[in-house]
């Protein structure tokens, strides 16, 4: 039996607009396991436990998020003044990795998302799909247990959507212990999930 990664707790409302909350109905009994992928719809906010830890009790949320959770946004949130490889490296600042190790890992991750040869380009010289793949590489830099993707294909053309969905399928195969949670309105994207809630 797999260890549950996310388990719903008691219902509450977010008190600050910058709090990260996932929602679902109180009546639903949700237990995600390592490797699960799902879509989260518009629901009531709930407490979240990750690997048994109540995030409301976590004293160092930024550090926890950096180590355990990867975030992919609809708009990539890349730093426009930095190159693709530097944007991926940023996620590894504050880790035990040396500058060279961060650079090597960033290059490897960019190659993993089919962007080898584009490492020196700034986001303004990349297509929307390429920028989103840089953002996904950045998300994977610290090997998160949970990947949260908020409308990751919402602003992309059909070809780029295909590339992102292929990438997510490859990630699921290569990283079976990573849980992917995808928030989407796109039925095609939702159809790739193990479960829809």
What does this entry look like structurally?
The protein has 197 residues and is an alpha/beta fold. It has one domain: Rossmann fold, CATH 3.40.50.300. Helices cover 32% and strands 18% of the residues. The chain has a 5-stranded parallel sheet. The relative contact order is 0.19.
Give the overall silhouette.
globular
State mean pLDDT (0 to 100 scale).
Answer: 75
- CATH-wise, what's the superfamily? P-loop containing nucleotide triphosphate hydrolases
Strand order of the largest sheet: 6-7-8-3-9
Count of alpha and pi helical runs: 6
Estimated share of beta-strand residues: 15-25%
Helix content: 25-40%
Write down the CATH class.
Answer: Alpha Beta
Order of helices and strands, N to C?
Answer: EEEEEHEHHHEHEHE
Radius of gyration, CA atoms, in whole angstroms: 17 Å
The profile of the biggest β sheet is: 5 strands, parallel
Class based on secondary structure composition and strand pairing: alpha/beta
Low-pLDDT stretches: 1-30, 37-46
Distance between the termini: 22 Å
Count the E strands.
Answer: 9
What would the CATH topology be? Rossmann fold
Question: Which features would summarize this protein structure in a list?
Answer:
disordered N terminus; five-stranded parallel beta sheet; 197 residues; four-stranded antiparallel beta sheet; alpha/beta; Rossmann fold
What's this model, at a glance?
It contains 6 helices and 9 strands, in the order βββββαβαααβαβαβ. By secondary structure, it is an alpha/beta fold. It has one domain (about 5-195): Rossmann fold.
List the helices and strands and how they pair.
Layout: E1 4-11, E2 32-33, E3 37-39, E4 46-50, E5 53-54, H1 61-68, E6 69-72, H2 84-90, H3 99-112, H4 128-140, E7 146-150, H5 158-174, E8 179-183, H6 187-190, E9 195-196
Parallel strand pairs: 3-8, 3-9, 6-7, 7-8
Antiparallel strand pairs: 1-2, 1-4, 4-5
Helix pairs in contact: 2-3, 2-4, 3-4, 4-5
